Amino acid sequence: MLKTYLNLAFLVTVLQATIRMATPLIWATMGGIFSEKAGVLSIGMEGILLVGAFGGFMGAFYTGSLFMGVIVAMLAGGLTASIYGYMTVKLGGSQAVIGTALVLFAAGITGFFYRAIFGVSSNLTNVAMFPNLKLPVLSHIPYLGPILFEQNILVYLGFLVVFATWIILYRTAWGLEIRSIGEHPEAADTVGLNVNLYRTICVLLSGLLGGIGGAYLSLANANTFVEMMSADKGFMAFAIIILGKYNPLGALLGSLLFGFADALQLRLQATGVNIPYQFLLMLPYVLTLIVMAGAGRTVEPAALAKPYKKS
């Protein structure tokens, strides 16, 4: 009986951590889906997450407000995305090259300003964190309550954004227009849609949502900023979008899958299991590759990564 209880307690803690680990990926994938559905790669999401994490930390540090930190993170992510959008949508540059350069730029500028402001020290500067909110009644459900209903506000909002994204893309005229631009921009242009304006808006939206994902890293998952704390989550989000077949609900499942693998390897390390920690660190990526290999062929938007110039 005691062993069973311990196993259930371990499972609950892993699943609870799964939700937390998946949340920044959820925000990033939802933003990336808007961009990619319109035909623009979200390969720069790693940089947006990193800038959002730094902006959220700085906003909270100087204002003393976590919500102002999130606003600053959104603005930082939106500004970063606007640079990417201008160079890819307006100028027609290579999305893969510019997105990669944006990630390197974000890594450099956030590290530079953090060191310039706070110096180089082993003592990290801290801010407050978003507290967990126990939802009345629901949080008392055995096992399920602690997993789903004892999380912070950004977790709850992240799940709402998933369903809002699905409704916008598949149940509104605006969503239909976005998808048509990603599939056949020439046809969309002939019926009066401003292709590059739609694409710019979707890229900016990806920056705003990705910025919140970054704020989660520094204000909810941690209470500080650490250089490169995005830890390849932006690139993973890029892969999850493909894994989820460019569908918000599929991306949600992919985010939870990666979150589970990440939470599991952290808990296994904490228990002192006799496995080299390098193999445990590989677990999320190996599991994702296995799932992607077995997921079958994914049909991407036909005009993805193809700049559009009105003839």
Characterization of the model:
With 311 residues, the protein is mainly α. It is built from 12 helices and 2 strands, in the order H-H-H-H-E-H-E-H-H-H-H-H-H-H. A two-stranded antiparallel ribbon has the order 1-2. The protein is globular and about 60 Å long.
Question: What is the topology?
Answer:
Layout: H1 2-37, H2 45-63, H3 66-90, H4 95-118, E1 133-134, H5 144-148, E2 150-151, H6 153-171, H7 173-183, H8 185-190, H9 195-219, H10 233-243, H11 248-271, H12 277-294
Antiparallel strand pairs: 1-2
Helix pairs in contact: 1-6, 1-9, 1-10, 1-11, 2-3, 2-4, 2-9, 2-10, 3-4, 3-9, 6-7, 10-11, 10-12, 11-12
Name the features.
311 residues; mainly alpha; 72% helix; globular
Helical coverage, percent range = over 70%
Q: Largest beta sheet, briefly? A: 2 strands, antiparallel
Secondary-structure element series: HHHHEHEHHHHHHH
Gross geometry: globular
Summarize the structure.
The protein has 311 residues and is mostly helical.
